[in-house]
Each structure stands twice: as structure tokens, then as C-alpha cells.
Model the fold of this input.
Amino acid sequence: MAQAPLLQLANISLTFGGDPVFDGLDLVIQPGDRVALVGRNGSGKSTLMKVMAGLAEADHGARSLSPGTRVGYMEQDPDFSGFPTLGDFAAQKLDPAEHYRVEMAAEGLDFDPGLDPSRASGGEKRRAALAKLLAEAPELMLLDEPTNHLDINAIGWLEARLRETRAAFVLISHDRAFLRALTRATLWVDRGQVRRRDSGFDGFEDWRDTIWAEEDEARHKLNRKIKAEARWAVEGISARRKRNQGRVRALQALRAERASQIKRQGTAAMALEAAPPSGKLVAELEHVNKAFGDRVILRDFSLRVMRGECVAFVGPNGAGKTTLLRLITGETEPDQGRIRRGTNLVTAVFDQTRAQLDPNASLWENLTGDPLMRVSGQADQVMVRGQPKHVVGYLKEFLFDESQARAPVRSLSGGEKARLLLARIMAQPANLLVLDEPTNDLDIETLDLLQDILSEFDGTVLLVSHDRDFIDRIATTTLVFEGEGRVTAYAGGWSDVAAQRRESAQMPEARTASMPAKAEGDARQGQPKAASKPKLSFTEAHRLDALPAEIARLEAEIAKLGVLLSDADLFTREPVKFRKATEALSARQTMLDALEEEWLTLAEKAGA
Done:
């Protein structure tokens, strides 16, 4: 027997002035659906998700839920008023015996549930909102950019959690690898229309391009028909006293049809101009140490960056990626060691905090107020790669409307702020780009364009990103921050890192000097080689050290579940909770058995 849909939207129409956001939208979410919700920035994805969550009211149409279905929505800007800690916020709808779920999510997402919200960063607050949704475990989860502000480890944890869940979910994300791994259907929001494809995100772009090509062909045929009919109407005047009014009306209808079509938004006209080449050597770090108090960032680290490389920096939040960038560019100095920087470096910096933008100033003022872009005596002009341009014209190249030019930056979305910062960076020639999380909030089309530009850039790129697909596409070398001051370099992108780790169990012998594959011989290892081969590989030794903590965490979770199930009335009072707790206990016991077996095997090998 077919299951009833979890959620249905019928004939939904919604307008915020101007063109409709949606008109006559019908949508069904089935149990177990895993849906990618994609579209350009500003196309209405978040608005549609809020309609699905019941947080936005449509002008027309109906929203209906299957009885007993709970819908959870990950809030972008949650209200923490009245909650002393992030954990209290995340656990607000849970029974005290279920608070362990928040602790589990906090560990996987890497935030402190005991932190006061007033002291938390925006990223920590978003992770708490995500933990709240996961801990509540609704039947339908709506996740709007859940991977923003997550490092690669946390993204991997979330990916595994969503892969295992029985709940349905809808994802808005720019992270291609995340979408490909998890989704089985795709909803595409485009100019007020929502198309569904019953296949995951992989293949979406070919499907989109096919639809656009068919649309362009149909528009081309319509234009040819209008031209032919218009020619008949003009030429027929001299030959006939009375024109065929039916054909005239048909011509008017064709023109009205063309006028009613909503033009597809183009891509930003982004471009980079390389400054005169830097020296062949961009930076060389030798036996560098850096720490902040007791927190070690780099330990005996050596690195060489050559002109033309794209070096990706990957690791947990707070591991020291931004610090290493600042060491390379000279913004900070090492505690010990030597740094030699190249000659003729012209640097442009994309700051993940968007600190270069004044949130209270307008877009116009943020561009004309930049000393490097200012045109003397011309308040409405900016200097773009050596040529003056009208500020509004330059903003239009980055997909901003004229009406936005005088709006404050704080009114922009995350993706719009990223585009504005790119507009500032790309106005001036550079031969060293320092990009700290440039991919956050950008839509897929803009990411494609940025990737193409960086791939063709003649200079050097230093990139901090958690977007695995983006790193794969452009990185020549990837630096992985392993913790405790250790940084390991791998040729290629993130997929290459995984492959090289599989091929080599001896991680200390991996290169820690940033060189492309053709220059591997120049790589140097910051750690001394062991005198003799250890009984365990580095990965195995690290795993043996980590297993006791994992086992202890599982034992604690099993104990908490045992306390919950010890309530003799739980089965009759809350049978669903009893069933879920029983399943969770069984799963954790199985996992505990496997981890204990793994520990015994490694311990025996270590003592062999």
C-alpha cells in the first residue's frame, strides 16, 4: 500500500512585488525523499523552504501535512533570547533524558554546548541550530545551507548522519560533493517555476543545460516567426487596402508572448588580470613554529610555494589555516624558524569575515571609498583594471540591480556580499590571491565561473575552503592540518588526498612541502624520520590512541539510553520513543562491539 505524502503544496502563488516568486506551484515530498533544492541566488529557494516549513504564508494555495508529521527547519538566524547556553537552545524541545542527542551532535559538529550565546560566533550559532534539528529528529528535515561554517570533518560527520537517517530531507547547498553523496531527487527553482527531476544532484547541470538549450531554440523560433509576420504586415500595406486583421492580432499575441517571458539571469562578468609576474619563489618557510599560548599551530613546519601554484588549506575550524596564510603574506611572524618571501608580490585578499566591507555604507560607497578604486574628481567612477567605469555599470557586471547601489551592505545576502567583495578584489591586478572561504554562499553558476577564472589565472592562489569539489577542481597541492601543529602536503585536491592516504599507511613520509606533482623532489618533511619502522603505521597508532575515547563516548550513550529505557511505563506511554531508543541502544551496542574488537586487534599488533 502506497504511503501518504509527508507534505503537499498545491497551487502556491507568492509575490513580493514585481515578478512572482512562485505561481501555481505544486509540490509533493514523500517519506524517505532526499531532495536537492537548487537555483540561483535570489531565485526563491529559501522562500520556498520557509513555505514548506509553514513559516511563510503564500498569497494563494494550500499547504498540507500528513497527520503526525513533524517538520524541522534549520534557522539561519536563530533567536537565542532566554537561553543561557547553546546547548539549552538546542535541547529546548527535548526531554531531559534525550539531551544526550545534543551532546552527540555538538561533538560531531564541533561546538561547545555550554557556550554563552552572547560569546558565540555566527558559525557556532548556526551549528547549534543544526544540532537542534538533528536532535529533535523530525520526519521531514529542511536544511538551508547546513554546510556553511562547517569544516571538512564536520561535513563528513553530517553527511554520514544524513545518509543513515530514515527521515526525509530537503537540502539547499552549494557543496556539490555533499549534494551528490546524499540526494535522490532534485528541485530546480528558476524564474518562478519549480521543476522536479527524480534523480540526485549528479547530472543536474546537464539536465539544466538541456532545458536552457531547448528554451533558447524555442525563443529563436518565436523571434523568427515574429520577424516574418512583421515583414508581411508592413509589406502588405501597399498591396492591400485592408490587412488581414486576424494575422495582425496573431502578431500582437506573439509579441505579447515574447514580452511575458522572464529573461534568464546571466552570469557575473567576473575577470582577473594578473599583475606583472612575481619571482619564481613566492614563499619559503623553514622549520617554523607558531603557537598562541598553549595552543600549537605549527610545529617544525617547512613549506615552499612556487609561482603558479594553487595551494588549498584544509582542516578543522581553529586549526590555524588563517594563521598560516598570514605567516606567508607577512601579516604575522613565526615564533621560531625562517620565512623568505618572494619578490614583486602584488596581493589581493578575500577575507572570510567580509571585514573589508563596511556594513553600514552603501555598495556605491564601498567601491568608491576604496583608495585603489577611487578616480580623482569623479565621484561616480571606479578604476577597474586601469580603466574608469561608472560604479553602477560595474555593479551590474556582478549582477546587482541599480536600485541596490545605494542600499547598505548589511541588507545583502551572504552570496551578494561575496560577489561585492569579489568585485573589489577583481578591480585591481594581482599576482597572489589569498582567498579565505570564498565559496560560502555563492550559487553553483558563480562557483563555476570563479573556478574557470582561477584555473586560468597566471598568478599564485592560496585557498582556504571546505568545499571538496571546488578544491578538487583547482588545487595543485592540498595542505591538511592534522592537529597538534602537524601539517601534511599532498599533490592535487581533496580526492587525491584520500587516494594517497589509502595508498600510503606511513603518513609521516607524506610530503609536507607544498609542491605540485612535477616538483615532488623538492618536498621536505618537517618531522624527523623514525630510526626503525614502527610496528603500527601512523594511521593505526593514531587510531589506537583515539579508540578509548570513542569507546567511552559510546558507553556513556548506552548508559543514558539504559536509564531512559528503565522507565517501566515508557512503552505504553510513548511507544514511538521507546522504539527509537531501543533501536538506538541496539545500534550503539553493535558499534561498541566492533570498536572493542578493533582496539584488541591493534593492541595485539602494537605489542607483537
